[in-house]
Amino acid sequence: MSTADMERRTVDPAAIEMLSAAEEAQILTAWDRYKAQQPQCKFGLTGICCRICIQGPCRIIPSRPGQDKGICGASAFTIVARNIVRYIVGGASAHSDHAREIAYTLLHTAEGHLKDYKITDSEKLKKIAERVGIATEGREIEEIGKDVAIKALEDFGKYDHDPCTWLNTTIDDERREKFKHTQITPTAIDRSITQLMHQTHVGTDADPVNIIFGGLQAALADLTGEYIATDLTDVLFGTPQPVLTEANLGVLDADKVNIAVHGHNPLLSQMVVYAARELEKEAVSAGAKGINLVGICCTGNEVLMREGIPTASNFSSQELVIMTGALDAMTMDVQCIAPAVKDMCNCFHTALITTSNISKVPGSVHIEFNDATAMESARKIVRIAIAQYGKRRPERVKIPQFKKQVVGGFSFEALMNLFGKINAENPISVLTDAIEAGEIKGVCAFAGCNNQKTVHDDPTLTIAKELAKKDVFLVSTGCTAGAFAKAGLLSSEGVEAYAGPGLKAFIKRLEEKSGLNAGLPLVYHMGSCVDNSRIAHLWTEMAKNMNIPIPQLPFVASAPEAMSEKAISIGSWVITMGIPCHVGVLPPLEGSELVYGVTTQIARDVFGGYYIFETDPEKAAQKLLDRLEKRAWKLRVHKAAAEKYDSTPDQGYEG
Questions:
Q1: Are 558 and 481 in contact (CB under 8 A)?
Q2: % of the chain residues with pLDDT over 70
Q3: pTM greater than 0.85
Q4: 404-644: CATH number
C-alpha cells in the first residue's frame, strides 16, 4: 500500500505510521485481509443467503423461477428477516451475558463471599433499589445489594410474564404503552433470545413482519441487559465523574512496562488497574520506570471513565498497538478481540493473555478469571507483563508520537452534576431550554464500532464535525468515542476548532461553572457499549422535562462505522424508542424491498424511530441535521400554539 492508499483507509496519523511499518516488515493487518477478501459475496451482502438448515446454503435470485425461494420455500423477505434478527440475538446475548456476570459479582459481594470487590456507590444502589421496588429504610447496604442483584438476575429468566423490571422502570409511560400495544415488551432476557432463535428455525415463522417484531423484543431485552450492566457496574466500581487523560498510540511509554486491557467486561480490567498500582516496585526492580496501563475498545472505556486510564486504540487499529514493539502484554476478556492479535504477538515479544472460558485464542496464555480469585489473577497478569518487558527488543520499538488530551467520565449523573451548576433544581432543563431557545438544535448520540468497509474513523469524525458546526450537542460511547479521543474531539481543542456559535456558547457557559481543571470537550464520552443505556436515560429525562413523547424529541443517533451484531441490536432498540438512527454501513437488507421498507419507513409509522442508511458521511450529517431541525421546529410551533390558546401541547403529532 502506498501512503496515499493508507490515507484512503484511515485518517488516524498514528495508524498510518504503523501501517507503513507493517508493510516494510511484510506483516499483514486487518486492512490487508479486507483487501484480500474482495469482491465479497453479493448474496451475503444483501442478506439473501440462507444457512439456517443444512439443505442449503440457499442463494436467492428473485428473477429466476425455482431460485426465487429456498429449498423449503422461504422467500427472500423471510430469509432477509430471519438473518437480520439473528444478528440482534447475537448482540443481545453478548450484552446480557456481560450484565449477568456483573449481577452475580454484586450478589457474591453482598453475601460476603468475595474479598476483592466492594459496594463502592451505595447512594446509587439505594436509588436503584427504590426504583425497582426494594425497601432501603433501616437496612444494611449489603442486604440491599443482595436484593438488587437477585432482582436483576430475575430479569434473565423468571417464571411469570411480567415485563422485565430494568426496562419497565426506566422507560416513560408513553413507550411503556407502545411496547405493550405492539406486544414487544420482553418478560425475560433469556426467554426473548431463546424464543427468537426458535422463531427463526427452519419451518417455523415465515412472516417477515412478525419475525422483525420478535427481533425488536430481543433488542429491548438487549437494552434491559445494558441497563443492568451499567447500573450494577457503577454500584461496584463507582459512577464515573469527569477525568483527564490522553488517547492514541503515543500513550505507550517506552520506559515502562506497557499492559493493554482489551475487551468489554470491567470485572477483570478494574482488578488489573489495582494490581498494577500494587506491583509498581516490582516493575522498577525489573529495570522499568514503572507500569503503564492503556485501554482498547470498551473495557478500555470502562477504566478510562473511572480511573483515567488512557486509550491506545479502537477496534480496527488494535493490532497496531502490538506493532509498536512496546506492548509487553495484552490481556483480554470478551467481545471485539480480533484473533489476529495473536499472529501479531508472534511477531513481537508481547504476551497475549486470555481470561474467559468462552473467549480463548490458540497459543495464548490462559489465566481463567473468576470473581473469587480476582486480584490473584490480576497479579499473575501484571507479573507476566513485567517478565516480558525483559524480552523486549529496543531496536524494534516504534511508538508514533501522536496523542490528544481527553476529558471523559460523563455518566448521566456527571452530566446532571454539570448542568446542575447552572440549575440545581432542574439540571436537565439546562439542555432542554437551550434546545427550545434555538441555541442548540438538538442532540446526536454516536455509537458503534469500526468497519473496514469505511475509512477508519473518518465517517465518525466527519459527521460529528458537521453537526457541531450546526450547533448540535454530541454524546458518544464505544469505539466512536475512541475515534473522537484520538482526534482531540474529547477536549476543548475540538470546541475551538469545530463548534458552531450556539454550541460554543452553551459549552463555554457550562465550562465557567464546571470547576474542572480542563476545558470541556466538544463530544461527551458516556462510556462503553453497554453504557448506551446512559444515553437512553438522557433522552427519556429530556422528553419528560419537555412533556413530550420521545418520538418528538430533537434527538438522533448515528453508527457511522457499524460492524458487530451488538451494533445492530443497539440500533434496533434505538428506533423502537422513537429515535432516528443513522447507519453508515449497509446491513444485509437490500435483498428484500419489503424488509428494507419496514426498517426505514414502516418503523417510523409504528414507533417514531427508523433507520437512515447512508454511506456518504456528509450526506448522513445533512440527513441527521434535517431530522433535528424538523423536530425542533415542530416542537416550537406546538409549544407556541399551546401558549397562545392556553392549552397543553399536542402530544399526538408526528415528530
A1: no
A2: 98
A3: yes
A4: 3.40.50.2030
